[in-house]
Protein backbone atom coordinates (compact mmCIF):
# COMPACT_ATOMS: atom_id res chain seq x y z
CA UNK A 1 0.00 0.00 0.00
CA UNK A 2 1.33 3.45 -0.91
CA UNK A 3 1.51 6.12 1.73
CA UNK A 4 1.50 9.88 1.09
CA UNK A 5 4.48 11.50 -0.56
CA UNK A 6 7.35 12.15 1.82
CA UNK A 7 9.11 15.27 0.50
CA UNK A 8 12.90 15.35 0.42
CA UNK A 9 13.00 18.47 2.63
CA UNK A 10 10.67 20.85 4.40
CA UNK A 11 11.16 23.91 6.62
CA UNK A 12 10.11 23.84 10.28
CA UNK A 13 8.15 27.04 10.95
CA UNK A 14 6.39 27.41 14.31
CA UNK A 15 3.92 30.00 15.56
CA UNK A 16 6.88 31.89 17.09
CA UNK A 17 8.34 32.61 13.63
CA UNK A 18 4.91 33.59 12.29
CA UNK A 19 4.24 35.92 15.25
CA UNK A 20 7.70 37.45 14.88
CA UNK A 21 7.08 38.21 11.18
CA UNK A 22 3.65 39.67 11.90
CA UNK A 23 5.11 41.84 14.64
CA UNK A 24 7.79 43.05 12.21
CA UNK A 25 5.20 43.84 9.54
CA UNK A 26 3.27 45.88 12.10
CA UNK A 27 6.41 47.65 13.35
CA UNK A 28 6.75 49.84 10.28
CA UNK A 29 10.36 48.73 9.68
CA UNK A 30 10.60 46.03 7.00
CA UNK A 31 14.08 46.22 5.55
CA UNK A 32 17.46 46.00 7.30
CA UNK A 33 17.11 47.35 10.82
CA UNK A 34 17.04 46.37 14.50
CA UNK A 35 16.02 42.75 13.89
CA UNK A 36 18.96 42.18 11.55
CA UNK A 37 21.26 43.70 14.17
CA UNK A 38 19.90 41.34 16.81
CA UNK A 39 20.09 38.35 14.50
CA UNK A 40 23.75 39.11 13.78
CA UNK A 41 24.53 39.47 17.50
CA UNK A 42 22.68 36.29 18.46
CA UNK A 43 24.28 34.34 15.62
CA UNK A 44 27.77 35.55 16.57
CA UNK A 45 27.12 34.43 20.16
CA UNK A 46 25.76 31.04 19.09
CA UNK A 47 28.74 30.31 16.87
CA UNK A 48 31.25 32.04 19.13
CA UNK A 49 32.71 34.39 16.51
CA UNK A 50 33.60 38.08 16.71
CA UNK A 51 31.65 39.43 13.74
CA UNK A 52 28.60 38.20 11.86
CA UNK A 53 27.34 39.99 8.75
CA UNK A 54 23.81 39.10 7.64
CA UNK A 55 23.08 39.01 3.91
CA UNK A 56 20.32 37.72 1.66
CA UNK A 57 22.00 34.42 0.67
CA UNK A 58 25.11 32.31 1.21
CA UNK A 59 26.00 33.10 -2.39
CA UNK A 60 26.06 36.80 -1.46
CA UNK A 61 28.16 36.00 1.62
CA UNK A 62 30.68 34.10 -0.53
CA UNK A 63 30.81 36.94 -3.05
CA UNK A 64 31.39 39.53 -0.32
CA UNK A 65 34.02 37.34 1.36
CA UNK A 66 36.02 37.20 -1.88
CA UNK A 67 35.59 40.96 -2.31
CA UNK A 68 36.79 41.50 1.28
CA UNK A 69 40.00 39.53 0.75
CA UNK A 70 40.61 41.55 -2.42
CA UNK A 71 40.26 38.87 -5.10
CA UNK A 72 41.27 40.23 -8.50
CA UNK A 73 40.73 39.38 -12.15
CA UNK A 74 43.09 36.57 -13.20
CA UNK A 75 43.49 35.16 -9.67
CA UNK A 76 42.77 31.49 -8.95
CA UNK A 77 40.65 30.02 -6.18
CA UNK A 78 40.58 26.32 -5.26
CA UNK A 79 36.99 25.06 -5.18
CA UNK A 80 35.84 21.48 -4.66
CA UNK A 81 34.15 20.01 -7.70
CA UNK A 82 31.69 18.30 -5.35
CA UNK A 83 29.56 21.32 -4.54
CA UNK A 84 26.66 23.49 -5.59
CA UNK A 85 26.89 26.07 -8.38
CA UNK A 86 27.23 28.98 -5.95
CA UNK A 87 30.66 28.04 -4.55
CA UNK A 88 32.39 28.44 -7.90
CA UNK A 89 30.24 31.04 -9.64
CA UNK A 90 31.23 33.73 -7.12
CA UNK A 91 34.84 33.33 -8.26
CA UNK A 92 33.74 33.94 -11.84
CA UNK A 93 32.05 37.21 -10.79
CA UNK A 94 35.62 38.58 -10.45
CA UNK A 95 36.81 37.17 -13.78
CA UNK A 96 39.00 35.00 -11.58
CA UNK A 97 39.27 31.24 -12.13
CA UNK A 98 37.78 28.51 -9.96
CA UNK A 99 40.25 25.62 -10.05
CA UNK A 100 38.31 22.47 -9.30
CA UNK A 101 39.69 19.99 -6.77
CA UNK A 102 38.66 16.37 -6.29
CA UNK A 103 36.93 14.97 -3.19
CA UNK A 104 37.62 12.22 -0.68
CA UNK A 105 35.54 9.13 -1.56
CA UNK A 106 34.16 8.63 1.96
CA UNK A 107 33.37 12.13 3.23
CA UNK A 108 32.83 13.72 -0.22
CA UNK A 109 34.76 16.69 1.20
CA UNK A 110 37.64 18.43 -0.54
CA UNK A 111 40.65 16.08 -0.57
CA UNK A 112 43.58 17.81 1.17
CA UNK A 113 46.00 15.56 -0.76
CA UNK A 114 44.79 17.14 -4.01
CA UNK A 115 45.01 20.75 -2.84
CA UNK A 116 48.77 21.18 -3.03
CA UNK A 117 48.92 19.90 -6.61
CA UNK A 118 46.39 22.55 -7.67
CA UNK A 119 48.22 25.53 -6.14
CA UNK A 120 49.96 27.92 -8.56
CA UNK A 121 51.51 31.38 -8.25
CA UNK A 122 48.04 32.79 -9.01
CA UNK A 123 46.19 30.95 -6.21
CA UNK A 124 44.71 33.36 -3.67
CA UNK A 125 42.19 31.33 -1.68
CA UNK A 126 40.60 27.96 -0.94
CA UNK A 127 36.85 27.50 -0.46
CA UNK A 128 36.32 24.27 1.47
CA UNK A 129 32.69 23.08 1.53
CA UNK A 130 31.57 21.08 4.56
CA UNK A 131 29.46 18.62 2.62
CA UNK A 132 26.24 17.50 4.30
CA UNK A 133 27.37 19.31 7.46
CA UNK A 134 30.56 17.35 8.13
CA UNK A 135 33.60 19.56 8.66
CA UNK A 136 36.47 19.26 6.21
CA UNK A 137 39.94 18.45 7.51
CA UNK A 138 40.49 22.05 8.58
CA UNK A 139 43.85 21.39 10.25
CA UNK A 140 45.43 20.30 6.98
CA UNK A 141 43.64 22.96 4.96
CA UNK A 142 44.81 25.74 7.30
CA UNK A 143 48.34 24.35 7.31
CA UNK A 144 48.46 24.44 3.50
CA UNK A 145 46.90 27.90 3.47
CA UNK A 146 49.57 29.17 5.86
CA UNK A 147 52.37 27.55 3.87
CA UNK A 148 51.21 29.16 0.60
CA UNK A 149 49.76 32.39 2.04
CA UNK A 150 46.19 31.63 0.92
CA UNK A 151 42.95 32.84 2.49
CA UNK A 152 40.39 30.25 3.60
CA UNK A 153 36.74 31.09 2.90
CA UNK A 154 34.54 28.30 4.23
CA UNK A 155 31.31 27.42 2.47
CA UNK A 156 29.32 26.36 5.52
CA UNK A 157 25.94 26.37 3.76
CA UNK A 158 25.38 22.88 5.26
CA UNK A 159 27.37 23.26 8.45
CA UNK A 160 25.28 24.84 11.20
CA UNK A 161 25.83 23.76 13.96
CA UNK A 162 28.93 21.75 13.07
CA UNK A 163 32.23 21.43 14.88
CA UNK A 164 35.76 20.48 13.97
CA UNK A 165 37.94 19.28 16.88
CA UNK A 166 35.64 21.01 19.32
CA UNK A 167 35.65 24.32 17.46
CA UNK A 168 32.42 25.63 15.97
CA UNK A 169 32.37 26.04 12.22
CA UNK A 170 32.23 29.80 11.83
CA UNK A 171 35.29 30.39 14.01
CA UNK A 172 38.01 28.56 12.08
CA UNK A 173 38.74 29.93 8.59
CA UNK A 174 39.27 33.56 7.59
CA UNK A 175 35.61 34.05 6.65
CA UNK A 176 32.79 31.48 6.92
CA UNK A 177 29.56 31.65 4.92
CA UNK A 178 26.27 30.13 6.09
CA UNK A 179 22.98 29.67 4.21
CA UNK A 180 19.44 30.13 5.51
CA UNK A 181 17.78 28.83 2.35
CA UNK A 182 14.43 27.11 2.98
CA UNK A 183 15.87 23.59 3.26
CA UNK A 184 18.86 24.46 5.45
CA UNK A 185 19.26 23.62 9.14
CA UNK A 186 17.76 27.01 10.02
CA UNK A 187 15.99 29.22 7.50
CA UNK A 188 14.97 32.81 6.86
CA UNK A 189 13.32 31.87 3.54
CA UNK A 190 16.38 33.15 1.73
CA UNK A 191 19.35 34.45 3.70
CA UNK A 192 22.95 34.01 4.69
CA UNK A 193 25.61 35.06 7.17
CA UNK A 194 29.34 35.69 6.91
CA UNK A 195 31.37 35.28 10.10
CA UNK A 196 34.93 36.42 10.72
CA UNK A 197 37.34 37.42 13.48
CA UNK A 198 38.51 40.41 11.42
CA UNK A 199 36.77 43.75 11.95
CA UNK A 200 38.34 45.01 8.74
CA UNK A 201 36.84 42.20 6.64
CA UNK A 202 33.48 42.49 8.42
CA UNK A 203 33.37 46.23 7.67
CA UNK A 204 34.31 45.68 4.05
CA UNK A 205 31.58 43.07 3.66
CA UNK A 206 29.01 45.41 5.24
CA UNK A 207 29.97 48.27 2.95
CA UNK A 208 30.14 46.16 -0.21
CA UNK A 209 26.86 44.44 0.69
CA UNK A 210 25.02 47.78 0.67
CA UNK A 211 26.05 49.60 -2.50
CA UNK A 212 29.57 50.39 -1.27
CA UNK A 213 28.18 53.31 0.70
CA UNK A 214 29.47 54.47 4.05
CA UNK A 215 28.83 52.35 7.13
CA UNK A 216 25.38 52.28 8.73
CA UNK A 217 23.80 53.58 5.54
CA UNK A 218 20.67 51.67 6.50
CA UNK A 219 20.14 54.14 9.34
CA UNK A 220 19.64 57.08 6.99
CA UNK A 221 15.85 56.94 7.38
CA UNK A 222 15.93 56.69 11.18
CA UNK A 223 15.89 59.49 13.78
CA UNK A 224 19.59 58.98 14.50
CA UNK A 225 20.51 58.71 10.81
CA UNK A 226 21.48 61.37 8.32
CA UNK A 227 20.56 61.88 4.66
CA UNK A 228 24.23 62.19 3.76
CA UNK A 229 26.22 59.24 2.44
CA UNK A 230 29.26 58.63 0.31
CA UNK A 231 29.84 55.90 -2.26
CA UNK A 232 33.22 54.44 -1.42
CA UNK A 233 33.23 51.44 -3.79
CA UNK A 234 30.99 49.98 -6.49
CA UNK A 235 29.06 47.64 -4.20
CA UNK A 236 26.12 45.27 -4.33
CA UNK A 237 22.61 45.00 -2.85
CA UNK A 238 22.86 42.02 -0.54
CA UNK A 239 21.25 43.20 2.72
CA UNK A 240 18.90 40.93 4.69
CA UNK A 241 15.45 42.29 5.55
CA UNK A 242 14.08 42.59 9.08
CA UNK A 243 11.20 40.37 7.95
CA UNK A 244 13.69 37.59 7.20
CA UNK A 245 15.70 38.28 10.36
CA UNK A 246 12.47 37.97 12.38
CA UNK A 247 12.25 34.36 11.16
CA UNK A 248 15.97 33.81 11.74
CA UNK A 249 15.88 35.01 15.35
CA UNK A 250 13.27 32.40 16.24
CA UNK A 251 14.91 29.66 14.17
CA UNK A 252 18.24 30.26 15.88
CA UNK A 253 16.66 29.65 19.30
CA UNK A 254 15.57 26.23 18.00
CA UNK A 255 18.83 25.42 16.20
CA UNK A 256 20.33 23.04 18.79
CA UNK A 257 17.00 21.26 19.18
CA UNK A 258 16.72 20.89 15.40
CA UNK A 259 20.22 19.44 15.33
CA UNK A 260 19.40 16.89 18.04
CA UNK A 261 16.48 15.61 15.96
CA UNK A 262 18.61 15.39 12.81
CA UNK A 263 21.32 13.54 14.70
CA UNK A 264 18.79 11.08 16.12
CA UNK A 265 17.40 10.41 12.63
CA UNK A 266 20.91 9.93 11.24
CA UNK A 267 21.57 7.37 13.99
CA UNK A 268 18.32 5.56 13.11
CA UNK A 269 19.34 5.44 9.46
CA UNK A 270 22.84 4.22 10.33
CA UNK A 271 21.38 1.42 12.44
CA UNK A 272 18.74 0.57 9.85
CA UNK A 273 21.30 0.18 7.07
CA UNK A 274 24.26 -1.25 8.98
CA UNK A 275 23.70 -4.82 7.86
CA UNK A 276 22.47 -4.07 4.33
CA UNK A 277 24.92 -5.14 1.62
CA UNK A 278 24.58 -2.65 -1.22
CA UNK A 279 24.19 0.40 1.04
CA UNK A 280 27.16 2.31 2.41
CA UNK A 281 26.21 4.67 5.24
CA UNK A 282 27.94 8.07 5.60
CA UNK A 283 31.43 7.92 7.04
CA UNK A 284 31.84 10.30 9.96
CA UNK A 285 35.38 11.39 10.75
CA UNK A 286 36.52 11.32 14.37
CA UNK A 287 36.49 14.66 16.14
CA UNK A 288 33.68 16.29 14.16
CA UNK A 289 30.16 17.21 15.11
CA UNK A 290 28.16 16.52 11.96
CA UNK A 291 25.32 19.01 11.36
CA UNK A 292 23.38 16.37 9.37
CA UNK A 293 21.95 18.86 6.92
CA UNK A 294 22.04 15.92 4.51
CA UNK A 295 22.14 12.16 4.91
CA UNK A 296 24.00 10.84 1.87
CA UNK A 297 24.23 7.11 1.28
CA UNK A 298 26.42 5.50 -1.36
CA UNK A 299 25.15 2.54 -3.35
CA UNK A 300 27.60 -0.32 -3.67
CA UNK A 301 26.87 -0.78 -7.37
CA UNK A 302 28.82 -4.05 -7.58
CA UNK A 303 26.19 -5.61 -5.32
CA UNK A 304 23.16 -4.22 -7.17
CA UNK A 305 21.49 -4.86 -10.51
CA UNK A 306 20.21 -1.28 -10.71
CA UNK A 307 21.98 2.05 -10.90
CA UNK A 308 21.50 5.18 -8.82
CA UNK A 309 18.95 6.77 -11.18
CA UNK A 310 16.72 3.73 -11.15
CA UNK A 311 17.04 3.50 -7.37
CA UNK A 312 15.79 7.09 -7.13
CA UNK A 313 12.89 6.38 -9.52
CA UNK A 314 11.88 3.33 -7.50
CA UNK A 315 11.91 5.37 -4.28
CA UNK A 316 9.79 7.99 -6.00
CA UNK A 317 7.28 5.30 -6.99
CA UNK A 318 7.18 4.44 -3.30
CA UNK A 319 6.39 8.12 -2.58
CA UNK A 320 9.78 8.96 -1.09
CA UNK A 321 11.55 12.11 -2.24
CA UNK A 322 15.34 12.03 -2.57
CA UNK A 323 18.05 14.17 -4.13
CA UNK A 324 21.67 14.03 -5.28
CA UNK A 325 24.38 16.21 -3.72
CA UNK A 326 25.98 17.00 -5.98
CA UNK A 327 26.42 16.67 -9.72
CA UNK A 328 30.14 17.55 -9.66
CA UNK A 329 30.81 20.92 -11.25
CA UNK A 330 33.27 19.53 -13.80
CA UNK A 331 30.51 17.40 -15.35
CA UNK A 332 28.32 20.44 -16.07
CA UNK A 333 28.37 21.89 -19.60
CA UNK A 334 29.66 25.31 -18.53
CA UNK A 335 32.75 23.96 -16.71
CA UNK A 336 33.34 21.21 -19.26
CA UNK A 337 33.18 23.58 -22.23
CA UNK A 338 34.86 26.63 -20.69
CA UNK A 339 37.76 24.93 -18.93
CA UNK A 340 37.94 21.63 -20.83
CA UNK A 341 37.39 19.39 -17.83
CA UNK A 342 36.92 15.70 -18.58
CA UNK A 343 35.34 13.23 -16.15
CA UNK A 344 38.70 11.51 -15.61
CA UNK A 345 40.36 14.78 -14.51
CA UNK A 346 38.54 14.51 -11.17
CA UNK A 347 38.10 10.75 -11.01
CA UNK A 348 36.89 10.30 -7.43
CA UNK A 349 34.04 12.79 -7.75
CA UNK A 350 33.10 11.37 -11.17
CA UNK A 351 32.91 7.84 -9.74
CA UNK A 352 31.24 8.71 -6.47
CA UNK A 353 28.59 10.78 -8.28
CA UNK A 354 27.19 7.55 -9.77
CA UNK A 355 26.63 6.12 -6.30
CA UNK A 356 25.26 8.93 -4.12
CA UNK A 357 21.69 9.45 -2.98
CA UNK A 358 20.51 11.92 -0.34
CA UNK A 359 17.66 10.58 1.79
CA UNK A 360 15.14 12.82 3.56
CA UNK A 361 16.36 14.13 6.94
CA UNK A 362 14.54 17.03 8.57
CA UNK A 363 12.74 17.91 11.75
CA UNK A 364 9.24 17.82 10.26
CA UNK A 365 9.63 14.10 9.59
CA UNK A 366 8.51 11.66 12.26
CA UNK A 367 10.38 8.59 13.43
CA UNK A 368 7.73 6.61 11.58
CA UNK A 369 8.72 8.42 8.37
CA UNK A 370 12.36 7.49 9.01
CA UNK A 371 11.37 3.85 9.62
CA UNK A 372 9.39 3.88 6.39
CA UNK A 373 12.40 5.11 4.41
CA UNK A 374 14.60 2.45 6.02
CA UNK A 375 12.10 -0.33 5.35
CA UNK A 376 11.59 0.78 1.73
CA UNK A 377 15.31 1.11 0.98
CA UNK A 378 15.97 -2.31 2.52
CA UNK A 379 13.20 -3.88 0.48
CA UNK A 380 14.36 -2.31 -2.81
CA UNK A 381 17.95 -3.32 -2.21
CA UNK A 382 16.95 -6.88 -1.35
CA UNK A 383 14.87 -7.09 -4.51
CA UNK A 384 17.57 -5.75 -6.79
CA UNK A 385 20.67 -7.33 -5.31
CA UNK A 386 22.90 -9.33 -7.67
C1 LIG B 1 27.30 23.98 -0.70
C2 LIG B 1 26.43 25.17 -0.96
N1 LIG B 1 26.97 26.38 -1.07
C3 LIG B 1 26.24 27.48 -1.30
C4 LIG B 1 24.88 27.40 -1.44
C5 LIG B 1 24.11 28.65 -1.74
O1 LIG B 1 23.29 29.03 -0.69
P1 LIG B 1 22.22 30.19 -0.93
O2 LIG B 1 21.05 29.58 -1.62
O3 LIG B 1 21.88 30.67 0.47
O4 LIG B 1 22.87 31.24 -1.73
C6 LIG B 1 24.25 26.17 -1.33
C7 LIG B 1 22.78 26.09 -1.47
O5 LIG B 1 22.15 25.10 -1.55
C8 LIG B 1 25.03 25.01 -1.08
O6 LIG B 1 24.48 23.81 -0.98
Verbal overview:
The structure is a single chain. This protein has about 375 residues and is α/β, with parallel strands linked by helices. The protein is about 40% helix and about 15% strand. It has a seven-stranded mixed beta sheet with strand order 1-9-8-5-4-2-3, with helices on both faces. It binds pyridoxal-5'-phosphate. Pyridoxal-5'-phosphate binds near residues 59, 84, 129, 155 and 157.
Using brief descriptors, characterize the structure shown.
single chain, 386 residues, alpha/beta, three-stranded antiparallel beta sheet, 13 helices, binds pyridoxal-5'-phosphate
Give the topology, please.
Layout (H helix, E strand, L loop, with lengths): L14 H13 L6 H14 L3 E5 L2 H11 L7 E5 L4 H8 L4 E5 L10 H7 L4 E4 L11 H11 L2 E5 L7 E2 L2 E2 L6 E5 L12 E5 L2 H10 L33 H12 L1 H19 L5 E2 L7 E2 L5 E5 L8 H10 L15 H7 L7 H7 L2 E4 L7 H17 L3
Helix pairs in contact: 1-8, 2-8, 3-4, 3-7, 9-13
This protein binds pyridoxal-5'-phosphate.
The site of pyridoxal-5'-phosphate has 14 residues, from helix 3 and helix 4.
Give me a quick take on this structure.
The chain has helices at 15-27, 34-47, 58-68, 85-92, 112-118, 138-148, 199-208, 242-253, 255-273, 308-317, 333-339, 347-353, 367-383, and strands at residues 51-55, 76-80, 97-101, 123-126, 151-155, 163-164, 167-168, 175-179, 192-196, 279-280, 288-289, 295-299, 356-359.
